[in-house]
Amino acid sequence: MESKNQTATIEFLLLGLSDDPELQPILFGLFLFMYLVTFLGNLLITLTISSDFRLHTPMYFLLSHLSLTDICISSATVPKMLWNIQAQDQRISYTGCLTQACFVLIFAGLENCLLAAMAYDRYVAICHPLRYTVIMNPHFCILLILVSLIISVVNALLLSLMVLRLTFCTDLEIPHFFCELAQIIKLACSDTLINKILIYIAAVLFGGIPFLGIFLSYIEIISSVFKIPSVQGRYKAFSTCGSHLSVVSLFYGSGLGVYISSAVTESPRKTAVASVMYSTVTQMLNPFIYSLRNRDIKEALRMLIFRMAHFMQCGHS
Fold this sequence. Notes:
Layout: H1 2-9, E1 11-14, H2 24-51, H3 58-87, E2 91-93, H4 94-127, H5 132-135, H6 138-161, E3 173-174, H7 181-186, H8 193-225, H9 231-264, H10 268-293, H11 295-316
Parallel strand pairs: 1-3
Antiparallel strand pairs: 1-2
């Protein structure tokens, strides 16, 4: 009963990236711009893939779900930050904070799994091209998405619900612009050993295993590509992996940067600034990486924009 009363009255403070009043309008404009670019860019990628029959392949099917996941990650964090800046109110309820942390975990875990699935897709396409359509059939692709989503949801719910056993003291300031599970646990004044162990296990399982899968896939891909006799054939094979490799490097590189910055610096604010990379900037850049480096996407995008412009012109006339 005391626990229920406590959770009903608890409120966290999201300190954001800076407490300087003069910087708040700049931060608001910057994050609003990044969110709109992320939302519209990833939505455009999804619409482009769904509207062009030539892009109805396993690779682009997985890419469209990656774009939707990027939209969801940004939508779980940035709108609340914009609201806090606009309302000049840093508070977030206990339920709201835990819900936000849970959604961030779900979509971050799903992105991990999708990147691993996309690496496997490239591995099958390059190392086993004759069996590609058999292995990467539509049912298998849908199964990959469903299994990834279920694993991510179960993991996020387990870690989030374990927070309910904790009690919190009076100093409830989170030095981030969103509720991060590790930061919430730091504020507890009860024993958090079990929670920390679960976080480490989840980090190894849902971060380490997908990354290992990506790493092993690309070792096999590189080995197979170097067996191709012609230089043009090697380039063509590598070019199909370029966009995915760029996204993987950005996602895991920014995550590693956050880990290193939190280990090196004792300033939580500096860690919060670093976390902007993996929670916001990476999702914003993904559409550009795939649209600029992929000829099929660019052609389909031009066709989609042409059809939309033609439709609007007919509507006005």
